[in-house]
Design a protein that fits this description.
This protein is mainly beta. Helix content is about 10%, strand content about 45%. The protein is globular. The two termini are about 30 Å apart.
Length: about 140
């Protein structure tokens, strides 16, 4: 009985780790300057394409009724809560990397080319935004379920 349970656990363990190597889920975004949690972003998948929305504003000074004043596209004037900041990311062939999408920085209204890479067994997500190859990478932390 114990051997059978141990074998089952050893067989299931790789699948549990594999299941977390995806950007799908809830993430805490971190402020580059203060290292404080800014927001909770929920990334979802539909037909192999990822989208991400702001689920919670977590800064102490955040206005929960804020709108995206800096946005220049269809998101201009839309509430920050529920705002779609990730659009169109797709998994690259044979890698745990999602690209071809765009990410919006709602603080300045700019949109960047996006790359998402789960790291640390899926506990963290490297979020890279760039223009012409120049950009920055943030590390988001998976929200415990």
């Amino acid at each position: 009985m114990i051997k059978a349970l141990a074998a089952l656990l050893l067989t299931a363990a790789p699948f549990a780790a594999w299941a977390q190597l995806t950007p799908v889920g809830s993430w805490h975004s971190i402020d580059d300057k203060t290292n404080e949690i800014k927001s909770e972003i929920v990334i979802a998948e539909n037909g192999g394409v990822l989208t991400g929305r702001i689920n919670k504003l977590l800064r102490k000074e955040a206005k929960q009724d804020a709108v995206c004043e800096q946005c220049t596209d269809d998101r201009k004037g839309k509430p920050m809560l529920g705002l779609e900041i990730i659009r169109g990311a797709k998994k690259t062939d044979g890698k745990d990397v999602w690209e071809e999408g765009k990410i919006l920085d709602p603080e300045n209204g700019k949109t960047y080319t996006l790359r998402l890479t789960p790291v640390d067994d899926g506990k963290k997500l490297e979020v890279r935004g760039s223009v012409f190859g120049i950009g920055r990478t943030q590390t988001w932390i998976r929200v415990a379920q």
